[in-house]
Amino acid sequence: MGQNVTNGSAALRVLLVDDHVDTCEVVSRLLDMDGHRVDCAYTAADARVAIDAREFDVMICDMELPDGDGLELLSYARARFPVQGISLSGHGGDIQERGAAVGFSAHLSKPFSVAILREAIQNAMMRNGKNGAHSASKVLPDSEPSRTD
User: Fold this and answer.
1) 77-82-83-84 Cα dihedral, nearest 10 degrees
2) Which of 58, 62, 116, 149 is the most exposed place for a label (fewest CB within 10 A)?
3) Is residue 3 part of a domain?
4) CA atoms within 13 A on the CB side of 126
5) Cα angle 49-12-29, degrees, rounded to a multiple of 5
6) Taking all residues of the chain, what is their mean pLDDT, rounded to a whole number?
7) How far is CA 19 from the centre of its chain?
8) 58 in a domain, yes or no?
9) How many domains is the chain partitioned into structurally?
10) Is 134 within the bounds of a domain?
11) Are 3 and 9 in contact, with CB atoms under 8 Å apart?
């Protein structure tokens, strides 16, 4: 795999699932600039097709899709291959806790900053064994204004 020009880490194969097309396009470009290979899906059905076609290291997934949710998609993917999950949501509530319960390693509240996204990716790399030690699951706080909108 390639090298991440931002921090020297190994590039990841990322599945980005979000029904907001602009968010997918911006986040995909940012991850691509960091050296990751990104596939975008705008629905749960499209995500399942991508999951059936290839393995991913990380799945960044909106928790509320028109035809499904991130909880089901992470379980679907993990039945096929080991994958780290990062959940996305524009809402609070119990989504963070439910995501953590099924194994999402981080939760990003929209809008999120590029720095928070990169931290979540870095943590996923470490959990995936791509960059050393296994890190603990955590919920990342909201921070600076979004650069994804």
Assistant:
1) 130
2) 149
3) no
4) 14
5) 80
6) 80
7) 14
8) yes
9) 1
10) no
11) yes
Predicted TM-score (pTM) of this structure: 0.79
Residue 28 structural domain: 13-127
Is residue 77 situated within a structural domain? yes
> What are the distances in angstroms from CA 43 to CA 28, 33, 62, 103?
16, 24, 10, 21
Q: Give, in order, the Cα–Cα distances in Å from 10 to each of 6, 52, 129.
A: 11, 24, 10
- The CATH number for 60's domain is 3.40.50.2300
In this prediction, residue 55 carries a pLDDT of 97
Could you give the CA distance from residue 118 to residue 96 in angstroms, rounded to a whole number? 19
The number of C-alpha atoms within 13 Å of 45 and in the hemisphere containing its C-beta is 2
Compute the distance between CA of residue 135 and CA of residue 8 in angstroms, rounded to an integer.
Answer: 18
**Torsion, CA 119, CA 124, CA 33, CA 148, rounded to 10:** -60
Which pLDDT tens digit goes with each residue over 7-31? Answer: 545 789 999 999 999 999 999 999 9
Please give the pLDDT value at position 145: 36
Residue 97: predicted pLDDT:
72
